[in-house]
Design a protein that fits this description.
Distance between the termini: 56 Å
Number of helices: 9
Order of helices and strands: HHHHHHHHH
Radius of gyration: 22 Å
Helix content: over 70%
Number of strands: 0
Length: 255
């Protein structure tokens, strides 16, 4: 397989070529040359693949938990259910360590969904030929913007307009200095979330691809082990920052 390509790259290239040949049936449309390159859709297709994977895992685990009597008994071996229980329990405990248990439970749907999407997107980097959604800045920026919109909405819902007033700082006579700094800091958060995740995963995928193209036996193994560490760390960092941003936004003004 050529460098910097995946099976999804080749599939989209074939589909694009087919659509180009038949575009006369659609007239002047997005399929023609006035549209962005088909490569722009690779990240979206990869993220949809991960989304369906996560939904499938969730449906599978939920079906195993339908029997309450059997669900309370842990399985003796590592299965999909026990893995997801340990995975989500870890991030739930992480959320509780950042904020109180009540808020952790309330906002865990966003926290858990973020952890699962980022983890399963990152893990694709360890499978040769698979697309990595989180190596695309558009996808990571989309994830970061979802977190950004949500924690600000949570903050407004919890503290009202005091959430905005809090950005002016404790001293009213310094609002003209502190407020712009706080606003800039607030809007930088999704950018740093997106760029950090994208760069780490893109470089990891690139290095693994280079080593696999040079020597496909044994030599890439240490790089893959390093990749596992990067996958776990980047999932932890993204989820931890999400917890911190939500915790700060929903903290009561008195605290």
């Amino acid at each position: 397989m050529p460098e910097h390509t995946t099976w999804l790259t080749l599939l989209l290239a074939y589909m694009h070529e087919t659509l180009e040949k038949n575009s006369h049936a659609f007239g002047s449309s997005v399929i023609r040359s006035d549209a962005p390159s088909w490569r722009n859709f690779e990240g979206i297709a990869a993220s949809l693949l991960v989304t369906f994977l996560v939904l499938g895992i969730a449906a599978r685990v939920k079906s195993q938990l339908s029997n309450a009597n059997e669900a309370v008994v842990p399985e003796e071996r590592l299965t999909l259910r026990t893995f997801m229980e340990a995975f989500l329990s870890y991030f739930y405990d992480l959320a509780k360590s950042v904020m109180d248990a009540e808020r952790a439970k309330k906002y865990f749907p966003l926290i858990g969904a973020s952890a699962m999407f980022v983890f399963f997107s990152n893990i694709m980097a360890l499978i040769p030929g698979f697309p990595v959604a989180t190596s695309n800045l558009s996808i990571t920026l989309g994830c970061a913007l979802v977190v950004f919109v949500c924690f600000n909405a949570y903050g407004l819902a919890t503290n009202g307009w005091s959430y905005i007033a809090h950005l002016a700082g404790p001293a009213w006579y310094l609002w003209w200095l502190i407020f712009p700094i706080e606003v800039i800091s607030l809007f930088v958060r999704p950018i740093t979330l997106a760029v950090r995740l994208m760069l780490n995963m893109a470089v990891d995928h690139l290095i693994l691809g280079i080593f696999l193209s040079l020597v496909a036996v044994l030599v890439p193994v240490p790089i893959m082990l390093l990749g596992v560490l990067i996958v776990l760390i980047q999932t932890l960092v993204f989820t931890l920052l999400t917890c911190i941003y939500i915790g700060l936004a929903t903290e009561h003004e008195a605290h």
